[in-house]
User: What shape does this take?
Amino acid sequence: MTDEEGAVAGTDDTVADDDALFVLTAILLTPAQFPSVLGDDYPAACEALGLEPYAEGYGLVLGQDGGGARWTVVIDDVSLVAVAIASWDCGMEYDLSPDDRSVVCGLPGWPLAVAVAAPGVPAPHDPDPETVGEDMAPLSPPDTDTWGPAQRRLGADAVASQWADWRGQMDDAASAPTGDEATGDEGAAAASSGGTDGQDSPEDAAADGAPDDDPHATDGEPQGPHPGIRRALAEARGYLDDPPPPGRVRSSFAPGDARMIRADGPGWSMVARTDDIAFLLLDEVPGEILPVGRGPELPGLLTGLDALAVRPS
Assistant: This one.
């Protein structure tokens, strides 16, 4: 998040016209880039905010009013927000001040956690219900103490943004001692690193790449891959024949000629590079990041997903 600050005029009737909004950060809400915490795809993310899923998308401006209340201002000037985000990412100042005519609506609260606050105003808090109406519940970030679809998608986003670190852990695990030499966490890491013999389909490669500590197995019984891995890969393959809603599969730049693939489905999230392996997160396996070995067919699946994915313009 950025601590850039600007001033935005009142959003609509929900914020007094003479009450400025101190901008703290901004987010894109487009088919190619949206807060995945809001949903598995772009239409679902829009629905979570009560917005129509227009193809052009929106910009979400998060800030505080003069009383310190949290507000999310939705604007239709996507280019303005994109320029502001790019400037902030480069360490440059940018005064994000949307024109009143670009404001679509103002929503109480923030959908994501913001680590900074505007100076000279009270600490961030939800607006007074009398101001926004009893039927308009403030937006709030997901509870990080529980595991569910929002946390699973956020976890996948984190893996995508830190791919090199996660991939490095896999390489370290693959070279860790095995058998009697492996003990404790080191042994568990070695077991979870997996890999394939080059002869498996993506679903079978999952058996090699999934951790052996299946939470559904009982003591003394052979432990195999979680069945949700095969289901998720089969559903991802189904997208090639029956394309999902916009944003369900997204493609972004990766080093070299590769692409980073982010795909979501009912109960699962995938992160993969087209030149490498994949990682899966499942609702039914809280907090686990399950590697999927490459095999001969995973490259074709990832190439197919990349072909139908929405890409940043």
